[in-house]
Automatic annotation (TrEMBL):
Keywords: Glycosidase, Hydrolase, Signal
Protein name: Carbohydrate-binding protein
Stored InterPro entries: Aldolase_TIM, CBM6, Cellulose-bd_IV, Galactose-bd-like_sf, GH, Glyco_hydro_27, Glyco_hydro_b, Melibiase_C
CDD domains membership: CBM35_galactosidase-like
Domain of life: Bacteria
Origin organism lineage: Bacteria, Bacillati, Bacillota, Bacilli, Bacillales
Keyword Phosphoprotein applies: no
Amino acid sequence: MFGKAAKTVLLLVLFCSWIGFSLGAPGSGTARAEDAAVAYEAEAAGNTLTGNASVADCAACSGGKKVGGLYQGASLQFNGVTVAEAGAYKVTVSYVSGDPRSANVSVNGGEKEYVEFPATANWDTVGSYDVTLELQAGTNTITFDDNNWYAPDIDRIVVAPASGSDPGTTPGVVYEAEAAGNVLTGNAAVSDCGACSGGKKVGGLYGGSSLLFPDVTAEAAGDYEIELSFISGDPRAFYVTVNDGESQLYDSLKTADWNTLGTYKLTVPLQAGGNRILFSDGNGYSPDLDRITVRPATQAEQPGADEGSIGDALTPVPYGAITVTPYTAGAVITNGSYSMTYHSATGYADYEWPGGQKVTGVSGQMKLDGQTLQTTDYETHSFSVQSVVPIHDGFGQGIEVVFVNEAAGKPTLKQVYDFYEGRSYFLTRLDAVSETAISTNYMAPIAVSRPDAVKSGQGTNDRVLTVPFDNDAWIRFKAQSVNRSDTSYEVTAVYDNDSRTGLILGSVTHDKWKTGIDWSGSGGKLNKMTVYGGASSSVTHDSQPHGSLSGTTVSSPTILAGGFADYRTGLEEYGKANAVVAPPLPLSADLPQGVPVGWNSWGAFGSGLSYQDVVDTSNYFHDHLPLMNNDGATYVNLDSYWDNLSDQQLGQAVSVIKGNGQNAGIYWGPFVYWGNNMSQTVEGTDGQYTYGDIVLKDANGNPLPTLDGAYALDPTNPGTKERIDYYLGRFKNLGFTYIKLDFLTHGSLEGVHADPAVTTGIQAYNEGMAYIDQALDGSMFISESISPIFPSQYAHSRRISCDTYGQINETEYELNSLTYGWWQNGTIYRYTDPDHMALSRAGSLTEARSRVNSAVISGTVFLDSDDVNDPTARQYMTELYGNPLVNGLAVRGEAFRPVEGNTNANAADTFVLKDGDSAYVAVFNYSGSSPAEKTIDLSRLGLSADAKYTTLDLWTGERGKVSGTLSLTLQPAESRLIKIAAPTCMQPKVDPCKSTKPK
């Protein structure tokens, strides 16, 4: 299930009015810095037209011609666009479009940028639209394609130096991937490539392959921009390593197809002289690489504005354990766990915790009518002790403090803070208040930009956690060095891995906004961070901007900011804080309690599921797997392609399952349409709605592009709701008591919704999911599959990662999500789902055991997915589902913590679950070909470094003794599940140290 590729934006869209040009000869010439402009006619003989594109008469157009027919896969390429110097150029597009249309624009086969062209007066009137493009010195191609929809008719383009820019930007030094001195390993190989410079590329970067540029020269040490020229017809990723340092993951790289070049820019630190830059696949699949271009990074970090003195202290005012101390030019608020300083002269705020965590120079921002309003730019900034309001809510007892920013002709911006006794965090939001209604799609309660603006507290091994919006397209969590830029969604952690001290910043309200956290750092310092509502990107899978919120008062998402001695505790506290605002979905007493245990059909049969497969599985689990249950409860779940069975067969299957004392589960995607017939009648609507009525559309009334091959349905449309009633009513009547809801992200996409009160994707998602919960009314265990992390209150479990089967690389992928997402378990969701265990897809029993271990420690939903008539599957199931100690650990439903959090986009290899003075530890070797020696410091597990412990291997029953460190030798793809306890906790065949923690 692939989402859209993340893009580095190479094209800045500017909507400008038409201005006059002094034109050179149409379709020829070279644009120079001193030249005004050069025009290129669309109908010129040297251009390339594909698909339906054709030249047509146009009386209003220059030359009397235009290129039209740009629809459903057509394109127009301007060839021979020549400039003397590399740099930024303004390209004015003259076009005709009687209705709003759009096009992808790309340069030299590079990254495409989606441009929306406003409608012209009619189909006989020429309009213009300006874009800024980066052109290379010499000849360029500029391509307009219709994005498989409808683009405007094009008259011509006019190319001129971009206003205020220097087109002589350093072109950089080019290093060809196929150069003789480069080092290729594994499957990597040079191959022909007509679109590539030099006619060659390096491909075959999969399964442990790499390409090394061994001698990339830098004149001086510092940050350098590396521009990749690559080809990748589906979303792929590179791991980039500089001078044998830490690898950085750059993911979701995609071009139009396997014949089209794209570009992507990244920034890396280089040393003076020679450097080694390695591109590797991380045992997955990477794009083919044409070349890299290396140039100095041009952006210098600004020092940041002076915050100003807060003056002299006045009389402190206590509010229980919280103290507000006003100053002559500010205030300091502390609860003993942190302090917040406000500078009323400038409007800046600072946060500080005892562990050294700091955020310096905080302001608020919003966008209004095309402008960014910043609180520190306002004329007055005020605070009054008299305005402090005591509060008591689910977070405890505290106070609410408001800092007011005012400026003539602008909405008042109120920075609202809620401080609580005994908490290591506070909550903040930004309110915009106006006498007349305002509308915005961007509000940032926390924005900082200055050197070293955000500090973890220690700084020896700093990490910034990038959290994905959802779990589609095998996306990964990333704990990255601060020396790069990225966007996290809903929450981030900034921490030192060695000491574990860190900061947590994340949203706790998910009713209106998608929250993004943009960050950037270099030189070991985190310099910029903006936490904002209004995120819309390829990672959220949106093709439209974030929707706008309107009113006389508009509020940002509420953000938690906290400092913790252990960032892991901080993330768990963040999860608990979200559960205060939106508690996890209760589990009906009529349903089996605890972790679901059983079987799912997808990994076993996929699209080939049959009635007999279901019957055979139910009987086999009943007859041969007596321990594969949770207190007697076993689920047999039909996944996608359950509709291979007739209604009669579905009813009979449920009867067989229930006759075996089991529970029946079903699968459905409530917000997706897999067809393409917009005239098809929607099931359950009595012919009142077609799919063309209920698919989610853009502002022009066009269906959104498909995601994962399916159209998104509008959750607020009455036809969608009637469809929900139809299917869920059908499932309930058949007797299903478990439902897996898939492709839910479609319901969160930005678009125009049927409910006029719903203006954002998350509002629509909330409405749709709440409707589903109401329709089910507690009759089923609800498991979310592909879905956003938030909102979280509509399901009992959520899959923590994308599809996972049985091989060790898949186990590692799932455990990456556990490494940085374990905190969802028991806080916002009752259980975190590691996906099904397809044991027979493993290459050995050892590899299959590692997949089981990964599921045991993940939270969990403990479902096999094998064909019970397969001899290998039977062997593995008998061996791996019959261990009472392992099964007992799984049904506790508690996710293990990662021991280390410095693994970038990979999984930790060691996980721990503390159990009083004891601990369970899981250790993995992710190599499928090489053994590994693992040494684990017991103090990193939360145990005493000096105490003597006994060990019990839960699989083999082998016992031992350990003190200080635990040393293990693991064979390829092997893992171990061990209990470490004081001697009195170990008794044969019993586990008296088992936690009694309720779930």
